[in-house]
Amino acid sequence: NSDLFSSNLHHSSYYLCNGGSQVAINIYACNTDKNEWEEPEEWKPERFLDEKYEATDLYKTMAFGAGRRMCAGSLQAMLIACKSIGRFVQEFQWKLCEGEEENVDTVVLTTHKLHPMKAIITPRV
């Protein structure tokens, strides 16, 4: 229906996609947007501990999608992930295998290791 798209709206801030189009969100660009993050190219995980970033502001990472199709379990996933990581650190001693310090090769623009990292994990007593 041609009346569906006839309006006086300013269309320069979004795109109209043809039916059947596939849309991909560039997560890398979302996580390195200088308008949203201070020094996004720097590895600073402590930025998420800063009180100026409220939990609701973390939508900027787009890790769980956004809008109506956002992951319904995102809050639960974050809570479980934080608790699980904490328990692993608390319950186990972690040490890299010999030579792993040099194993820094990654696949482009991802956190996947080109060669899987190996560690020695022993229970804390």
Describe this structure in words.
The protein is an alpha+beta fold. The chain has a domain at 2-71. It is 18% helix and 8% strand. It is built from 2 helices and 2 strands, in the order H-H-E-E. The protein has helices at residues 27-31, 74-91; strands at residues 92-96, 119-123. Strands 1-2 form a two-stranded antiparallel sheet. It is elongated and about 60 Å long. Residues 1-7 have low confidence and may be disordered. One of its GO terms (molecular function) is heme binding. It is found in: Membrane. This is Cytochrome P450. It is a single-pass membrane protein.
List the helices and strands and how they pair.
Layout: H1 27-31, H2 74-91, E1 92-96, E2 119-123
Antiparallel strand pairs: 1-2
Which key features would you list for this structure?
125 residues, alpha+beta, two-stranded antiparallel sheet, 2 helices, 2 strands, 8% strand, elongated, disordered N terminus, transmembrane
